[in-house]
């Protein structure tokens, strides 16, 4: 948010982890991040890394340690739920841990995201179904099974 004109991360810079994320997916992601080819320009982010299975987490740490021999410049952010700080990945990378609280108020964050997700020239696209020509939206319900 310090550089509002900079684009948001691309699909290859973010790994959204779930309990079903495979070791191969994590391995490909870590190789993109740690093997020198982008000269440290991209910021790679693993979201919800605490949800990885134990086996995948172990293999991810092993691969991370193995790829350290490249001594490349990389930028890797691993975001975890603070309530699961004792799961494998947060424990394995605890020496790098930084507790973070959002520094910007929610309305400012929302404006920033609206700037990046608004369709500039509305057409007959799917973006017309979301408020203010946004190309993303969140549909939720307090009740389960209502088809959203």
From TrEMBL:
The keyword Ion transport does not apply. InterPro entries: RNF213. The keyword Translocase does not apply. GO terms for molecular function: ATP hydrolysis activity; ligase activity; ubiquitin-protein transferase activity. One of its GO terms (cellular component) is cytosol. It comes from the Eukaryota. GO terms for biological process: negative regulation of non-canonical Wnt signaling pathway; sprouting angiogenesis; ubiquitin-dependent protein catabolic process. Keywords: Ligase. This is RN213 ligase. It comes from Corythaixoides concolor (Grey go-away-bird). The lineage of its organism: Eukaryota, Metazoa, Chordata, Craniata, Vertebrata.
């Amino acid at each position: 948010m310090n550089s509002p004109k900079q684009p948001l991360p691309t699909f290859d810079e973010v790994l959204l982890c779930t309990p079903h994320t495979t070791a191969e997916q994590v391995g490909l992601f870590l190789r993109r991040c740690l093997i020198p080819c982008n000269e440290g320009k991209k910021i790679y982010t693993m979201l919800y890394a605490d949800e990885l299975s134990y086996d995948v987490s172990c293999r991810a740490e092993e691969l991370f340690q193995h790829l350290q021999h490249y001594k490349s410049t990389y930028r890797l952010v691993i975001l975890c739920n603070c309530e699961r700080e004792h799961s494998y990945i947060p424990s394995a990378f605890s020496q790098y841990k930084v507790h973070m609280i959002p520094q910007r108020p929610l309305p400012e964050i929302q404006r920033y995201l609206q700037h990046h997700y608004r369709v500039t020239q509305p057409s007959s696209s799917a973006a017309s179904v979301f408020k203010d020509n946004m190309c993303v939206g969140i549909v939720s319900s307090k009740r389960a099974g209502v088809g959203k």
